[in-house]
Amino acid sequence: MAGQNGAKTKLVVLDMAGTTVADGGLVEMAFEAAARELGVEPGSGRHDAMLADVRATMGESKITVFRRLFGEETLAQRANIAFEAAYDRLVGEGHCAPIEGAEATIARLRDAGLKVVLTTGFSGSTQQRIIEALGWQKLVDLALCPADAGRGRPYPDLALAAFLRTGAADSVAEMAVLGDTGYDMQCGVRSGAGIVAGVLTGAHDAVRLREDGATHVLASVADLPTLVL
After folding, report:
1. Are the C-beta atoms of 143 and 125 separated by less than 8 Å?
2. Average pLDDT for residues 144-164, to the nearest whole number?
3. What's the DSSP call for residue 53?
4. Is it true that the peptide bond before 154 is cis, omega within 30 degrees of 0?
5. Residue 64 in 3-state DSSP?
6. Predicted model pTM
């Protein structure tokens, strides 16, 4: 299927947690560890407010979230290190798995000649830990984290980095961006992607996804081939 301006899709940029990867609430569990590291106890008013912010901003670069929550760079870095360590441990314990249909979808897209890129708001080390745990090292053409692109979501950098590094498309209009959060949608819209699709397997509902610019809302990533091929 062509994007809104009639361009044929040649590049697909996929989010990970909540879109292609079911992490079983690991983000919130890892946040609990980060909060405790900085003395924010579960059940406190401050903790509840921070957790609400984390939920509302799913998809945003995690270090950016911690900078907003803790104010000081040193504290933000400590929180981020604790978060990454906890997430890595939980992944190692087997708490993440592919979203149903994700692997088959990616394989089908690549078999059809499209380039596929995985993006995340996590650090590169955590992203690679997830990819290794799932055995996805050869599943996609490229994997990018905020440090690879410049800025994380909602900025367009991740999608644009995928466009530039793969050289798969002649125009950003030939790119499709898929994610489960409003921040994914904003990234796709700002990048000029022809298709900006939200899925209902993750953090945000259809209303939030459409408010932030989704051109399509799908039940899951398994519905993507029907949309773009």
Report:
1. no
2. 94
3. H
4. yes
5. helix
6. 0.85
Q: How many Cα atoms occupy the beta-carbon half-sphere of 129 within 13 Å?
A: 20
CA–CA distance, 202 with 154 (Å, rounded to integer): 17
Contact 119, 11 (CB under 8 A): no
- In angstroms, rounded to a whole number, what is the distance separating the alpha carbons of residues 192 and 227? 18
Compute the average pLDDT of residues 5-12. 86
Residues making up the chain, counted from first to last? 229
Structure tokens at 138: 């050869």
Q: What angle do CA 210, 124, 38 make, to 5 degrees?
A: 85
One-character DSSP codes across 104-145: HHHHHHHHTT-EEEEE-SS-HHHHHHHHHHHT-TTTSSEEE-
**Tens digits of residue pLDDT in 49-97:** 988 888 887 777 788 888 988 888 999 899 889 888 888 888 888 788 9
Matching residue, tokens 């367009």: 156
Decide which of 29 and 156 is more confident.
156
Is the per-residue pLDDT at 140 higher than 80? yes
Residue type, 55: R
